[in-house]
Write a structure and sequence with these properties.
- The protein is of the alpha/beta class and 323 residues long.
- Helix content is 46%, strand content 12%.
- The strands form two sheets. Strands 5-4-3-6-7 form a five-stranded mixed sheet, sandwiched between helices.
- A hairpin with a 2-residue loop joins strand 4 (118-125) and strand 5.
- Helix 4 (140-150) runs parallel beside helix 6.
- It starts with 18 loop residues before the first helix and ends in a 28-residue tail after the last helix.
- The model is unreliable at 318-323 (pLDDT under 50).
- The protein binds 5'-O-[(R)-(carboxyoxy)(hydroxy)phosphoryl]adenosine and zinc ion.
- The site of zinc ion (ZN) has 6 residues, from helix 3.
Length: 323
């Protein structure tokens, strides 16, 4: 009924998220943002049926703030508590029901690309999903952000690469292509190849980046998008699935969105692209996942704790909490 975000500008200075500053900002923001969300929804706190929160994966300090707050609020209101896996949230953002939009039919494939993850997920039902491909090193978002840093952009640089790429030639420069088996990804080779390329060019011309910024952005973006789609196309073909979705912060990228539409036309796919506000991290995706879990009776108790790394499952069992 409302979907608010308390952004954190503080990290821009440091070229990345500083975990300790992030958790302090969470502490400062959580009461005001929950309060504002309740007001915006036009409800009373007593109207809330259940509290869903992100248990993980993510930065532990920030997760602890959210988890503690959710547990306290569920206890105070005497309502069920639902521990959501953040990565399920990204996929299930497709089911947020605020517009007359077709929803993906099961089974479908979802390319989840965010700052921390790159996954091809086989989605069998709302709560049955399997990762069939993932990155062995950097995530797609990191490939964008780390390259952006090399180009001199502030954090997060992904959206700035996107912006400059629109005025550049994507064929101007070519970078290393990963050669991964199956549906897995690797982005560290690409990053290194960009780094060495820039270092060599800057020796010849100290203004190389400045003079070629748009072409560099367009070429980097094209390389990343090619890598992403090569595996998605392979998976779709081999599994015979024609319902293809994208999710996660990087799916806000304009080339990824248009490429999915183009590939979809060529390959007779039904494609699903979330609204911008449901691509990057948001509260509604956790709420919708909580909704499906609530229907399935999947509730947590007060012993639940935040976890930086969790297995890819709607609930992580205590047996699998070792990692
Ligand atoms: O899902 P998300 O909001 O947070 C995580 O859970 O990681 O994803 C954030 C990532 C960042 O790496 C950011 O640079 C990237 O999404 N991103 C983009 C664009 N918008 C956000 N990358 C490329 N192009 C964009 N337009
Ligand atoms: Zn995310």
């Amino acid at each position: 009924m409302s979907n608010l975000i308390a952004g954190q500008k503080v990290h821009e200075h440091y070229g990345g998220v500083v975990p300790e500053l992030a958790s302090r900002a969470h502490l400062q923001n959580i009461v005001p943002v929950v309060d504002a969300a309740i007001k915006k929804a036009g409800i009373r706190v007593e109207d809330i049926d259940a509290i869903a929160f992100t248990k993980g994966p993510g930065l532990l300090g920030s997760l602890v703030v959210g988890t503690s707050f959710a547990k306290s609020m569920a206890l105070a209101l005497d309502v069920p508590l639902i521990d959501v896996n953040h990565m399920y949230g990204h996929v299930l953002a497709h089911f947020i029901d605020d517009e007359e939009k077709a929803k993906p039919a099961f089974p479908f494939l979802c390319l989840t690309v965010s700052g921390g993850h790159t996954q091809i997920v086989l989605v069998r039902s709302h709560l049955e999903m399997e990762i069939i491909g993932t990155t062995i090193d950097d995530a797609a978002g990191e490939a964008f952000d780390k390259t952006a840093k090399l180009l001199g952009f502030p954090y997060p640089g992904g959206p700035l690469i996107d912006k400059h790429a629109q005025h550049g030639n994507p064929e101007a420069f070519e970078f290393a292509k990963p050669n991964m088996k199956g549906y897995n990804y690797s982005f560290s080779g690409l990053k290194t190849s960009i780094l060495y390329f820039l270092q060599n060019q800057e020796k010849l011309n100290p203004k190389f980046i400045e003079e070629n910024l748009n072409d560099l952005c367009a070429s980097v973006q094209r390389s990343i998008v090619n890598v992403l789609f090569q595996k998605v196309c392979k998976a779709a073909k081999e599994l015979g699935i024609k319902e293809i979705a994208i999710a996660g912060g990087v799916s806000a990228n304009s080339e990824i969105r248009t490429r999915l539409i183009e590939e979809g036309k060529q390959r007779a796919w039904n494609v699903f692209i979330p609204k911008f506000e449901y691509c990057t991290d948001n509260a509604a995706m956790i709420a919708i996942t909580g909704f499906f879990m609530h229907q399935a009776g999947m509730h947590a108790d007060q012993s639940v704790s935040a976890q930086a790394r969790i297995p890819f499952a709607p609930r992580s069992t205590s047996a699998s909490q070792k990692n």
